Amino acid sequence: MAVRSLFGQGSPVQHALLGLAENAALPPELIDRLILAADAYADADLAEALAVRPDLSDAQTATLMRFEAAAIRFAHEGRLTIDSVDPAARPRVALALLEERSGRPEWAYSLAADPRADIRERLAACPALPHEVMRTLASDPDVRVAAELASWAPTDIATQLAAHPHADVRRSVAANEATPPSVLASLLTGDGLPPALSCAVCDQETVPFVHDPNCDRRDCSLPPGAACDSSHQSTVFEIQQMALRNPATPVDAATAFAGHPSMLIRVELAARVDLPAQVYSRLAQDPVPWVRATIAENPTIDENLMRALAVDRGHDVQRRLAHNPHVPLDVLSDVSTTTKIGSTLLPRIASATPREVEELATSANPSMRMLLAQRRDLPPHVRDALAEDPDAKVVKSIAPHPGLSDVQLRTMVTRHGGRVLAKVAANPDATAKLLEDLTQHRPAVQKALREVALHRNATAAALLACLANRQARPLAARHSALPPEVIVGLLSDEDWQVMEAAAANPSLPHSAMSELIP
After folding, report:
1. Helical H runs in 328-478?
2. Among 363, 459, 463, 483, which residue has the fewest nearby CB atoms (within 10 Å)?
3. Which InterPro entries match (predicted)?
């Protein structure tokens, strides 16, 4: 039998076996058979899926070790011993151990001399390398290796690489928080450093060159707008962005860019948390809303500036201000009436004091009650009051809160219908009977069916109703409360997601599991 005819990528058999590989109820003897099948048919995807299992024996692990992807996963999960890995034969597995600080330090010396650049590049990303290895990698002829190292290298190596002839390496140095402040200041301006000799653009194209944003060349890896006229201008611009994003860059050097003509540069500056108040005030007057919105969310701006930004109607300014952890509650209330914030737990709401919680629960602004209802640690009397709220968006927000009774949840549905159905279904305390009733609601609410299919209390009757919905069907197929005969029937479903989910269902009979394995 040909390998591809049975285990072809995306074939029904493969999907069923991938689901079976993650089935928590799979007995040891069937795990053995699955591993043998993966080995016999060289199915690396199946082997990697099996490698995730926490119940593998030493012998099963040893067999799966023949697949590189599985071995790498074992390495990252601490399930490999150093003695079981030969770095010369399996360098990528050795790299995985080095990435976890579990490999032998001497491996780094041999891997640094590997002829494959991708191996050296991955080595350059490993932590705690010997200093001599880092120096070797810093002078690597492949720019990608030096650039990878430059993004985290210690101070002395970073300082050395700041003068690298390739601008891409300097960009990585600019992002490295171990780079000395004086070097970062030089990278911002170019002063004190020799000019870069090349960049990704002039490596590939005859300069002057500007990359067409609508370029349709399939072999082109340059980002839209990348440009070089021998000054490597687009990469220099990226160096400045990285340096401004770097908290180690000196404040004085950064503030000099407050009037930079590029909006992108000013946005990076606006996100910094160490600028003088007058610079924040200047940026809050920026003509570009994105800059002002970034300032609005900055946790270090003062209350006066927040109040000024609260009346800014620029796109996203008020919404971002609402996410500022220090925004005054009265400002947040004003903002919530003029802009759509969405159902999310805002930092300022999450940090509200017990007294503020009481005040928010009785706020005349329903948006503030809705935002408070996103908390899942509310006192019972506050939770219960919000559950009785006349505003549907408040009830929708409180519906998933633990501790609500069956009567309270049913009352929500009676009063507000489909608007709150999905959130009621998401409540961890929703009873089995309530979940069944929710699946019978007409018109059906698709999101509610998905929540029911995921709920631990869902019954077979509720799940059978969910199977009639295309989006809820794969979720229901995985639920252990589904009748075994139904699960077996889903193994031949036309939807591969349903088939895979059914195979992963722990209630699938062992006999059906056995029949799936060739």
Report:
1. 329-338, 347-350, 354-361, 366-372, 380-387, 392-398, 406-416, 418-425, 432-439, 446-454, 460-466, 473-477
2. 483
3. ARM-like, ARM-type_fold
